[in-house]
Amino acid sequence: MAQRHEIRSTEEHENHPGETLVTTDHDVIGNWARERGAEPATVPGTEHDGRPGVLRLDFPGYGGQRLKHLDWDEWFRTFDERGLRFIYQEHLKDGKPSNFFRLENPHE
User: Of the candidates 69, 88, 75, 95, which has an alpha carbon nearest to the alpha carbon of residue 26?
Assistant: First the structure.
């Protein structure tokens, strides 16, 4: 697996466009999502014991009608409880903003 640049604060950024980044910092994740108009969400029907199931971000115009919005506190509580990491890009290689992200459980 390729080495990922770990971001620990909103003051840190990619070294070059297209670089894969990783963070667990709530401010970094929230700022990245808000800059793209994305809302915290979960996939309906994936809940466990009344708690959110599969976490997602709902980007404008990308099929969010199938997602259930959460508040950031609930999204981050679930993110932290599962020990997830946020893998993402700030920009594509051509310099355009990137919406690429995925959630990873490093313990699986």
Answer: 75
Q: Where are the domains of the chain?
A: 17-90
Kindly give, in sequence order, each residue whose CB lies less than 8 Å from that of residue 62, ignoring residues fewer than 6 positions away: none
Q: Which amino acid is at 90?
A: E
Report pLDDT digits (tens) over 32-52: 999 999 999 999 989 888 889
Other C-beta atoms closer than 10 Å to the C-beta of 19 total 16
Determine which helix (DSSP H) or strand (DSSP E) holds 34, and give its type and residue range: helix 26-35
- Residue 86 parent element (H or E): strand 85-88
Closest to 86 in 3D by CA, of 16, 15, 31, 11: 31
Side-chain half-sphere of 61: how many Cα atoms within 13 Å? 3
pTM, 2 dp: 0.91
